[in-house]
């Protein structure tokens, strides 16, 4: 990358912090950290490289958008062998929807890395999704396809992609579970605890009790998500009972 | 892949032919040739796998389309460091246009592999582009990202992607060259010869002479393409002279 060498040299403490923080988000160490810097440069900063080309995250966003689409396509291809081209296209567009990408970026609190001349409070929601895509573009340039796949698997597919839910077959496992408990006259309780794990993001923990017995627990970046996750786990653990009822 | 084991077993001669022919198109040997078979199965054949899922090229086309977009994006990112997101998007859509993909499929004569219940003469032009994309999807499943990149580089980018031409800056190197020759009062001659190379596709060779001296030669799958390629080579060889004129 053609970063003007004088931009970041004077901020070596700040550089070290960025390297550590971004490594935590990525789950691996960057080879060329300057590429990741670029993924968070807003056009308002108005930087140019040695050749006079504008430097901001928009080109990386273009690249990351394409790579994300490819890896989600591959995932859907494998997971839904009966889905035709139209179905796969529809499901992919749900997963990579603007709204969903903004959530992903927010959950990782990527906005803290953004360098901008405009106050961050002035940005709309899309900044979160844009830099999330730019980050994928940066991974692609820095470490190639395999690392993108790993990152997208860990940060998008595993925590968020539930095909049943996307298909609209299951809106909420929590409501399914509550309905079942009420029908069966079972008491249920969601117990929230603050999670003091070593994650970079604050997590919430939820334990789900049915008739006083813990049936599942889960952690997530919001209380609502943790409840949903715990419900889903309980749902699958109890599935044979639920289906018979 | 869940291919019903009885479909192709009875055609071992035909299978061997397919393996050889598709290896030539690919430039490498398939690991699992059944995936490539699927890339040419038209829905009219109405095949299903063991689990009852329809087998045709449409799902692979979905996958190949995404991968092609990603690799072209990466190419443009590298080649045009000054292009913004809008420019990159526009250029990519020119390269992966329906018309262009159909040409690529036709040049490789992919339709010879298509298995269909409908007479091939009834297909429109899009069949060529569709199976070209499906073929990329098959490479992705069979050999992964690296082989897709290699295939797209050899079969799409090197022979066909000329950024100057796509930008509309240069419509035709042949006309540029002829114009220059006429202005400079130089004689030019395109000499076509039939190429007897070992390529799987028939190629045409063209030698370009200016004032009786050969300045370039080129091979391509049509006379027109070979002339354009030879003109382009001559153009760059003579560029310093042309620019001064």
UniProtKB/TrEMBL annotation, chains A, B:
Cofactor: Mg(2+)
Presence of the UniProt keyword Acetylation in the record: no
Residue ranges occupied by any DRBM domain in the UniProt entry: 172-240
Ranges for domain RNase III: 19-144
Subcellular localization: Cytoplasm
Signal peptide: none
Residues of the active site: 65, 133
Catalytic activity: Endonucleolytic cleavage to 5'-phosphomonoester
Entry keyword set: Cytoplasm, Endonuclease, Hydrolase, Magnesium, Metal-binding, mRNA processing, Nuclease, RNA-binding, rRNA processing, rRNA-binding, tRNA processing
EC annotation from Swiss-Prot or TrEMBL: 3.1.26.3
Keyword RNA-binding: yes
Residues holding Mg(2+): 61, 130, 133
Transmembrane segments: none
Pfam family, one: dsrm
Subunit organization: Homodimer.
NCBIfam families listed in its UniProt record: RNaseIII
Family label: Belongs to the ribonuclease III family.
Function of the molecule: Digests double-stranded RNA. Involved in the processing of primary rRNA transcript to yield the immediate precursors to the large and small rRNAs (23S and 16S). Processes some mRNAs, and tRNAs when they are encoded in the rRNA operon. Processes pre-crRNA and tracrRNA of type II CRISPR loci if present in the organism.
The protein's name in its UniProt record: Ribonuclease 3
Organism: Muriicola marianensis
């Amino acid at each position: 990358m053609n970063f003007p060498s004088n931009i970041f040299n004077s901020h070596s403490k700040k550089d070290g912090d960025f390297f550590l923080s971004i490594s935590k988000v990525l789950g691996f160490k960057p080879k060329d950290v300057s590429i990741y810097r670029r993924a968070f440069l807003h056009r308002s900063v108005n930087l140019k490289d040695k050749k006079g080309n504008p430097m901001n995250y928009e080109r990386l966003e273009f690249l990351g958008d394409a790579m994300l689409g490819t890896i989600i396509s591959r995932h859907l291809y494998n997971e839904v062998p009966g889905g035709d081209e139209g179905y796969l296209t529809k499901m992919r567009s749900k997963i990579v929807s603007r709204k969903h990408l903004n959530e992903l970026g927010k959950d990782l609190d990527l906005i803290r890395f953004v360098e901008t001349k405009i106050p961050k409070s002035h940005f709309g929601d899309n900044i979160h999704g844009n830099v999330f895509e730019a980050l994928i573009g940066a991974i692609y340039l820095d470490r190639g396809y395999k690392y993108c796949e790993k990152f997208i698997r860990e940060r998008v597919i595993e925590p968020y992609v539930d095909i049943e839910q996307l298909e609209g077959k299951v809106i909420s496992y929590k409501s399914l579970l509550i309905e079942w408990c009420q029908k069966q006259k079972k008491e249920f309780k969601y117990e929230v605890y603050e999670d003091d794990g070593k994650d970079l993001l604050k997590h919430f923990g939820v334990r789900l009790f049915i008739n006083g017995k813990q049936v599942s627990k889960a952690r997530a970046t919001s209380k609502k998500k943790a409840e949903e996750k715990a419900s889903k786990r309980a749902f699958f653990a109890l599935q044979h009972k639920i289906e018979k009822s």
